[in-house]
Amino acid sequence: MLRMIRVLLVLVCAVALLAACTTAETPAPATVEAEPVAEAEPTTEPPADEEGQTLMLATTTSTYDSGLLGFILPDFEAKYGVKVDVVAVGTGQALTLGMDGNADVLLVHDRAREDKFMAEGHGVRREDVMYNDFVIVGPESDPAGISGMTDVAEAFAMIAESQSTFVSRGDDSGTHGKEKSVWAAAGIEPAGDWYISAGQGMSDVLTMSEEQLAYTLSDRATYLSRVKDGFDLVIVVEGDPILLNPYGVMAVNPDKGEHIQADLANQFIDWLISPETKALIGEFGVAEFGAPLFTPQ
């Protein structure tokens, strides 16, 4: 019962955060659960708890939309007898959930804001986990003429100059933060009918971009997870070092309340950065795409 109440409280907070980030009508972030797997012998004895162990993980949409969490979390749940409740939102919203004490552990991808979160005392431990990269995707017709470029700021400038349709996450996510930094590097404040601020997660933005034959900035993992479903947009710009996309995991400060599962958060972090889990992360996507969607650090 306590776990259900806590999940409902986090969902209410997440809905409020989404409403504050955009005036567009957006779906409430879903609380998702990893697929069950066959029972495995626990390698570490979980702490005793009459109601069972539950860990609240706030994370970016890319780790869920790509399928990574569904691939790796069953291993943690089976080994430690812990249920992981996942709230998949933008990085900014995940950080706010941590600041407000509505999550135990965060898995996000915006290093500057992660460092700020730690410096302000909201977190007590941060570890590097993995990385992939961002890419610009767009229609094969390539109206801005940017296909094959490796300077992403110059590509953004050409999109703006041609006023080719561009769909932005517009949701204070890590991807949105990266996009804003590229516009700043290009010396451009995007505005006009050609620039659409969606206030949506990555998968929904990719759908919008496909429908409108528009460009967008996507993490590679979420883009590739859509390609297997017949997605039409193609990668037009990649390879700029600025597009590196590292992910970090952080334990929320237990001073935010007795409900914070500090021991479980540290147990989860130890598992996530272990050689065994890094191997799982490195396997994800290889069978379908010939290369991992995330590279463990």
Structure description:
The protein is of the alpha/beta class. The chain contains twelve helices and eleven strands. It has helices at residues 2-21, 61-65, 68-80, 91-99, 111-119, 152-162, 174-186, 202-212, 220-227, 262-272, 275-283, 286-289, and strands at residues 31-32, 53-60, 82-89, 105-108, 123-138, 166-168, 195-197, 216-219, 234-237, 244-252, 295-296. The strands form two sheets. Strands 1, 2, 3, 4, 5, 8, 9, 10 and 11 form a nine-stranded mixed β-sheet that branches. Strand 6, helix 7 and strand 7 (195-197) form a beta-alpha-beta unit. Helix 1 (2-21) packs across helix 4 and helix 6 crosses helix 7. It starts with a helix and ends with a strand. Residues 1-5 and 7-50 have low confidence and may be disordered.
Please sum up the structure shown.
By secondary structure, the protein is an alpha/beta fold. It has helices at 2-21, 61-65, 68-80, 91-99, 111-119, 152-162, 174-186, 202-212, 220-227, 262-272, 275-283, 286-289; strands at 31-32, 53-60, 82-89, 105-108, 123-138, 166-168, 195-197, 216-219, 234-237, 244-252, 295-296.
